[in-house]
């Protein structure tokens, strides 16, 4: 009898009990795109669609133990890293992953929630830049996060380009600057690749409050397409299309009293099976 394996994606991220962001959004996305989802919890935010109320930390030893348990057993084809809110947590994740074979990493520098809440400690940023940026295949900041990283205002497309170039000098391999906060009718995101080339992705804006977890969804979608052995540019392009459609198909649904979730399962794929040789 033939045996098979699923393309596997590990998400290392925070919790969202309301189901729209964090590990919950990641696992929905990975599953909807036909991959097998595993997870490591980094923090326990108490939140709903209206915002974050409190964040309970997870001991760093518990994070390290979780990573080792997964990588010793269900080794991933790609890794998505989301909420890392302390320097010790960043160091622990990088050190633990460094014990294993290198895997493509998509890092979503979660610093500001959709609701506007700041989610990261100030001293964590330099540790992220020094230790996590160099090992990530791509980072996916939104405009608020790009402004923090670049140390400048980021409101326009030109400012996004300047910020991208500044962030690249911090040691990133490639950057997807998300343009979802633009006030123009057409939203433009910019992908700055490893060779310093910019690629623009355009999408028409439509009215909706249901964008909670869109950044988590995008980064885990990129990781899912990488796990399917697509190149980085194609993975970014396909992931952007997936998020656009997930927002579009969930725009007329009310879930909660604030920013509602995406419709991750607008077109779910069956689990992909690769034959083991």
TrEMBL record:
Q: Where is the signal peptide?
A: none
Which Pfam families is this protein grouped with? Answer: Phos_pyr_kin
Q: Which InterPro entries match?
A: HMP/HMP-P_kinase_dom, PM/HMP-P_kinase-1, Ribokinase-like
* Domain called Pyridoxamine kinase/Phosphomethylpyrimidine kinase: residue spans: 16-263
Q: In which pathway does it act?
A: Cofactor biosynthesis; thiamine diphosphate biosynthesis
Superkingdom as given in the UniProt entry: Bacteria
Ordered alphabetically, the record's keywords are:
Kinase, Transferase
GO MF annotations, alphabetized: kinase activity
Major enzyme class: transferase
Task: Cite the EC number.
Answer: 2.7.1.49
Q: What NCBIfam families does the entry give?
A: HMP-P_kinase
Q: What PANTHER family does the record tag this protein with?
A: HYDROXYMETHYLPYRIMIDINE_PHOSPHOMETHYLPYRIMIDINE KINASE THI20-RELATED, PHOSPHOMETHYLPYRIMIDINE KINASE
Q: What's the protein called, per UniProt? A: hydroxymethylpyrimidine kinase
């Amino acid at each position: 009898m033939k045996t098979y394996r699923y393309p596997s994606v590990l998400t290392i991220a925070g919790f969202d009990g309301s189901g729209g962001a964090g590990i919950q959004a990641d696992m929905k996305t990975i599953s909807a795109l036909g991959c097998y989802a595993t997870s490591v919890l980094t923090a326990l935010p108490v939140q709903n669609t209206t915002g974050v109320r409190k964040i309970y930390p997870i001991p760093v030893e518990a994070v390290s133990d979780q990573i080792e348990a997964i990588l010793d057993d269900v080794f991933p084809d790609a890794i998505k890293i989301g909420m890392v809110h302390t320097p010790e947590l960043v160091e622990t994740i990088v050190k633990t992953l460094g014990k294993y074979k290198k895997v493509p990493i998509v890092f979503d520098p979660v610093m500001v929630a959709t609701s506007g809440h700041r989610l990261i400690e100030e001293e964590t940023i330099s540790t992220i830049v020094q230790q996590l940026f160099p090992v990530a295949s791509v980072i996916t900041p939104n405009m608020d996060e790009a402004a923090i990283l670049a140390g400048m205002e980021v409101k326009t497309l030109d400012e996004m380009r300047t910020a991208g170039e500044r962030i690249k000098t911090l040691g990133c391999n490639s950057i997807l600057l998300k343009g979802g906060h633009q006030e123009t009718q057409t939203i433009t995101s910019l992908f700055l690749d490893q060779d310093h080339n910019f690629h623009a992705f355009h999408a028409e804006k439509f009215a909706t409050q249901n964008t909670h977890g869109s950044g988590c969804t995008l980064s885990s979608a990129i990781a899912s397409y990488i796990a399917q052995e697509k190149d980085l540019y194609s993975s970014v392009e396909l992931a952007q299309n997936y998020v656009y459609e997930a927002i579009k198909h969930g725009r007329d649904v009310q879930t909660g009293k604030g920013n509602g979730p995406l419709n991750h399962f607008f077109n779910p794929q069956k689990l992909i099976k690769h034959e083991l040789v």
